[in-house]
Amino acid sequence: MHWIAQLIFLAVLGTASYFFYRNVSRIRRNILLGRDEDRSDQKSLRWKTMLRVAFGQSKMAARPIPFILHFVVYAGFLLINIEVLEIIIDGIFGTHRVLSFMGPLYDIAIGFFEILAIGVLIACALFLARRFIARIPRFHKAEMKGWPTRDATIILVSEIVLMTALLLMNGADQALQQIGNNHYIAAGYFPVSGLFSDAMLHGCSENTLILIERSCWWFHILGILLFLNFLPYSKHFHIILAFPNTYYSNLNPKGRFTNISSVTNEVKMMLGLPDADTNAPPPESFGAKDVQDLTWKNLMDAYTCTECGRCTSVCPANLTGKALSPRKIMMDTRDRLEEVGNLLDKKQEITPDKNLHSYISKEELWACTTCNACAEACPVNIDPLNIIVQMRQYLVMEKSEAPNELNMMFSNVENNGAPWQFPASDRDAWTR
Amino acid sequence: MSEIIPVPTVAELVAKGESPEVLFWVGCAGSFDERAQKITKAMVKILHHIGIRYAILGNEESCTGDPAKRAGNEFLFQMQAMNNIAILNGYGITKIITTCPHCFNTLKNEYPDLGGNYEVIHHSQYLQQLIDSGQLKFEGGEYKGKKITYHDSCYLGRANGVYEAPRKVLEKLDAELIELKRCRSNGLCCGAGGAQIFKESEKGTTEIHHERAGEAIASGAGIIAANCPFCMTMLRDGVKHHNRESDVEVLDLAELVANANDL
Ligand code: SF4
Ligand code: SF4
């Protein structure tokens, strides 16, 4: 009989891994639709940034309560995966608690995982409470309606269910160990499930216990594989992308905006500077009309966004009731990128009637003060402002669609060397 | 502050066969905006007081291009930048001081890509250096014990990570420094940046500068210290909106230091 279970397990594991691989390749392909940008310099600083911000969660600490709760879930995710490794080995070879040969070390580990599991369970329950009972405002902005809120709820509830299954499984296992069932070797220390394993022992027959243990075992591993394949469709993909995304962080001062080198050559030619390359082909377009015009880092940012809304909660425009929300900029970029990716998958044409500007309005783009509060607040070093500026560049340089007052400012700068209409010859009037 | 101080231009110094140790980049607001001119004059007095050989570009200075760049007009920005760089490099300028964090950021971070490499310092950093080196010695003067709050500008703070220098300067005033709830990297924008000051704001429930001025007034300070001529405009408008211009004053760091020194 055992080999049938092993076979089913292998088939499920293989299918889940295949789909996960396909999804990840699709996302990778989508990210690489973006423009080139070199972020391969300063490797040691990049590693340090990643360790500090992603691994060490340093930017989460700005808000202590979610920091602690998130840290528990995060530690749970990292460490309980060691137990998943055991589950996978057991599943393939039909063994039971294969790592228990490590003796006391194993006992300590299992005990620790149990404490983590109950921690994760409680943290997720509190997260749900923050969202739906305390109704923290940043979780209830316009862009969170529908799927984004469902996404978050699905994840939190599945974590709770998965952790419950893990603890029930351990409880039944311990009861079976006490009965002396041959298959259930005495191993592990169960500080949490130990609290109810006696009740299970007295309340259930040996067969029922085996049934509970096996179903929870299968439920747990199937749940995890399902979860793995849910990730690429969810904001929870950040648990993977947070690492590369922080590695490729912008290391320049935040005030330094990228220089468009194709413009530099054009301007040099206009000014008749000797080092202008007169043979360079004229640039095809300026700024970002659609996702492919953004850099691959902008697109990676979009897939990394956790939809936490820390950016939006400190955005001066959003705080004063404007339509702009930096989180929405990231969500829209991701949605549009998914749409473009799907068109490519279906070998359909990307028609010019729809682009990133169909998702993000001018009203949003022009409300930004370029204050960098969003980029500063983001726990995974996303830079929404960078996308906003590239979209402005498209509006101004391709479409000449700046607000009138800004066009006036441009012509003042051009004609008077100042954003106001004063004659340039009065610039030093204050000295007279 | 109405007396006329002779302010040398680089061209004048060069004509005499001299060159300035530092260039004072005045900026558009500092040149044309009436309120910001007072900041410029305060800075000039400090430069005179310490006796450094400085100069301005005068009418050879032109907008750095910052508002054009933030608004997405890269062409105009680079035109401005390259013209300015031609003049700066032509005079062999190596060190620039400016009282505007937008000029500071653009000159320091964005001109190098276009061939302009200078040591650029914001006046808050310069004032701190003068205090540290003992070139500028003063007591709190008229600000001793007064309640002062400080507004971090986005382009000095988050954009360039300068949080301590302005605070060190304020400490020297012997005043009671009250930090706002949203300060340093968490500071709230005044609403001017990104070329916003040149246009009406989008539809919303309130104005950013009303919100920020309200926060500063609520701190109970009688003086709001600023480091940017645009923040100055926004905060003063905000204070006016709350009808508190009679008891809440907005002053630049340079003005505070000049006043404390009776310059
Ligand atoms: S940079 Fe723009 S989008 Fe980001 S917080 Fe400031 S105003 Fe909001
Ligand atoms: S951009 Fe960053 S701060 Fe904003 S919602 Fe996404 S993860 Fe959170």
Describe the protein's architecture and organization.
The complex is a heterodimer of chains A (432) and B (263). Chain A folds into two domains: 2-31 and 63-238, Fumarate Reductase Cytochrome B subunit (Up-down Bundle); 261-403, Fumarate Reductase Iron-sulfur Protein, Chain B, domain 2. Chain A has helices at 2-31, 43-55, 64-93, 104-132, 147-179, 194-203, 206-230, 238-247, 261-270, 296-304, 310-314, 316-319, 326-345, 362-366, 373-377, 384-398, 404-416. The mean pLDDT of chain A is 95. Chain A is mostly helical. The longest helix of chain A has 33 residues, at 147-179. In chain B, 43% of the residues lie in helices and 11% in strands. Chain B has helices spanning 10-15, 27-32, 34-50, 66-70, 74-90, 101-110, 123-132, 164-172, 208-218, 229-241, 253-260, and strands spanning 22-25, 54-55, 95-98, 119-122, 147-150, 176-178, 223-226, 249-252. Chain B has a four-stranded parallel β-sheet with strand order 2-1-3-4. Chain B has a four-stranded parallel β-sheet with strand order 6-5-7-8, sandwiched between helices. In chain B, helix 3 packs across helix 11 and helix 9 (208-218) packs across helix 10. Chains A and B meet through helix 9, helix 12, helix 15, helix 16 and helix 17 of A and helix 2, helix 3, helix 4, helix 5 and helix 6 of B. Bound molecules: iron/sulfur cluster (2 copies). One iron/sulfur cluster (SF4) is lined by residues 305-311, 326-327, 330, 377-378, 380, 382, 384 of chain A.
How is the CATH topology of the largest domain in chain A named? Fumarate Reductase Cytochrome B subunit
Tell me the β content of chain B: 5-15%
Side by side, the strands of the main sheet of chain B go: 2-1-3-4
Broad structural category of chain B: alpha/beta
Mean pLDDT across every amino acid position of chain B: 96
The shape of chain B, in one word, is: globular
CATH class of the largest domain in chain B: Alpha Beta
**Rounded average pLDDT of chain A:** 95
Number of strands of chain A: 0
**Radius of gyration of CA atoms of chain B, rounded to a whole number:** 18 Å
Low-confidence stretches of chain B: none
Order of helices and strands of chain B: HEHHEHHEHEHEHEHEHEH
What fraction, in percent, of the residue positions of chain B are helical? Answer: 40-55%
Distance between the termini of chain B: 9 Å
Q: What is the overall silhouette of chain A?
A: elongated
Domains of chain A (count): 2
